[in-house]
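Hi R.,

Here's the chain you asked about this morning:
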Amino acid sequence: MSFKQAGGREAALRLEQLLQAETIDIVPHGRDAYGRTLADVFVNGRNVAEVMTGEGFGRRG
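And here is the predicted structure, written out as tokens:
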């Protein structure tokens, strides 16, 4: 795995930690310009993207 951005390794480790939860729900909500499924990922009822950005591991697109 390549971690080119500062904090990349820490973000990957935190994401791995979150995904160890007992309950993971994936909620599709559309497709992108290339036909790939877009979805929100929830861990124990919490949106993973919101958790990660709230903890400083990214930004809203």
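One quick note: Residues 33 and 39 are 14 Å apart (CA to CA).

Cheers,
M.
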